[in-house]
Design goal:
Layout lengths: L1 H24 L7 E2 L2 E4 L5 E6 L5 E5 L10 E2 L11 E4 L5 E6 L5 E5 L13 E4 L7 E4 L5 E6 L5 E9 L2 E4 L3 E4 L7 E4 L5 E6 L5 E9 L3 E4 L3 E2 L9 E2 L10 E5 L5 E8 L5 E3 L3 E4 L7 E4 L5 E6 L5 E9 L2 E4 L3 E4 L7 E4 L5 E6 L5 E9 L2 E4 L3 E2 L7 E2 L1
Antiparallel strand pairs: 1-35, 2-3, 3-4, 4-5, 6-7, 7-8, 8-9, 10-11, 11-12, 12-13, 12-14, 15-16, 16-17, 17-18, 17-19, 20-21, 21-22, 22-23, 22-24, 25-26, 26-27, 27-28, 27-29, 30-31, 31-32, 32-33, 32-34
Length: about 375
């Protein structure tokens, strides 16, 4: 009897070890690399967040009098295993979400609006995750956080009203069989959309819907096809006709996109995949530009960044040529849109520092300034 118990215990231990190894292998799936998360304060000054070489989180901000601060630690000596997600809440304060070394999600927030160095202590949100968190401000003014669990499903946690205050819900599973982190956006009707790469390498999509019985619910996952070499990226702002567009680096290393289109009966459907060319070494970053057209920025095989933008033609919207931004980078780009519609681009150089280029207007044209180093010795993380 004792021998049987020993054998059973040994078999159980082997099964647990095998399961643990399987879960750990989730993180070894090739992924695009980034190095910076960027958001703007309510007064439009930028804050940049990055992991140092020893996996601590640091931030740097634009000073009111001009220029940049030095790099500052985000409290304590806590180690993190993912890049941060930064979002401005309905009060105007920045909030940061990041996965810890223990695979759970942690949260910190500015204590006051535009408080450059005043942040709350890290709060543990629990859960076990295989990807970095992604945060979004929904149409009700509440924050929602999404991440891929270690079972490959997407989980989310949201703020909810509690009298005159707000609190956080528990984690809820949205299901799915995913191999990459989610990309999340809010459409013009106020519904949240989640995009991710599935285990079949195609793009999968799940969206909020209105239901008669339960109010806001979720539709089933739907495959939008494609053969993805990177996680999909969707802009935080819809295109000029208030429809969503999703961009990916495909298996042929080119940039591809798929857009929502209006149907004859007044509805919205997804159009076909369309190639946008290029030979890319990283997934794209995308945002709305000053012309209310989408601009896409990606790193090519020569390590430089390139961008292309939508343009208006007599036949509707088309895409311009690729334009070289130069530089030599070891990660993809992070791009943010300022209040005036101009863009700021950040990426990690081959020297491990964060580099920055700002869009400016010259002679009636928008151009990017020369690259300037923001310093730091940063670590790459999965986008």
């Amino acid at each position: 009897m004792k021998l049987l118990l020993v054998v059973a215990a040994f078999a159980s231990a082997l099964a647990l070890e095998s399961q643990t190894e399987s879960l750990e292998r989730i993180d070894t799936i090739p992924s695009d690399k980034c190095a910076a998360a960027v958001a703007s304060n309510e007064d439009d000054r930028l804050q940049v967040f990055s992991l140092s070489h020893d996996s601590q989180l640091w931030h740097k901000y634009q000073r009111r009098e001009g220029g940049w601060s030095s790099w500052l630690p985000m409290g304590g000596k806590q180690k993190f295993s993912s890049g941060p997600s930064v979002v401005r809440n309905a009060d105007g304060r920045l909030e940061v979400f990041v996965r810890g070394a223990d695979k759970t999600i942690y949260h910190s927030a500015q204590k006051k609006v535009n408080a450059d160095e005043g942040w709350t202590s890290w709060a543990c949100f629990g859960g076990q995750f295989a990807s970095a968190p992604v945060s979004v401000l929904n149409s009700q003014g509440y924050l929602e956080v999404f991440a891929r669990g270690r079972d490959n499903a997407v989980y989310y946690k949201g703020q909810i009203a509690n009298g005159t205050a707000t609190t956080w819900s528990n984690w809820h599973s949205l299901g799915g069989e995913l191999t990459g982190p989610p990309s999340v956006t809010v459409d013009p009707e106020g519904m949240v959309h989640v995009f991710a790469r599935g285990n079949d390498r195609s793009m999968w999509h799940k969206r909020q819907i209105a239901t008669e019985k339960h109010g806001i619910g979720w539709a089933k996952w739907e495959s939008l096809g494609g053969v993805l070499a990177s996680s999909p990226r969707v802009g935080s702002i819809p295109n000029s006709i208030s429809l969503l567009e999703v961009y990916v680096r495909a298996a042929d290393k080119a940039l591809w996109h798929r857009s929502q289109v209006a149907t004859h009966n007044g509805g919205v459907a997804w159009g076909n995949w369309a190639p946008l060319g290029g030979i890319l070494a990283s997934g794209p970053a995308v945002t709305l530009n000053a012309d209310h057209m989408l601009t896409v920025i990606s790193r090519a095989t020569d390590k430089a960044l390139y961008y292309k933008s939508q343009v208006e033609t007599v036949n509707g919207t088309a895409y311009g040529d690729w334009h070289k931004m130069g530089g030599a980078f070891s990660t993809g780009a992070t791009v943010v849109r300022r209040a005036d519609g101009l863009l700021d681009v950040f990426a990690r150089g081959i020297d491990r520092a964060i580099w920055h280029s700002a869009q400016v207007e010259e002679a009636g044209h928008f151009v990017f300034s020369p690259w300037k180093s923001l310093g730091g010795r940063t670590r790459r993380f999965n986008c």
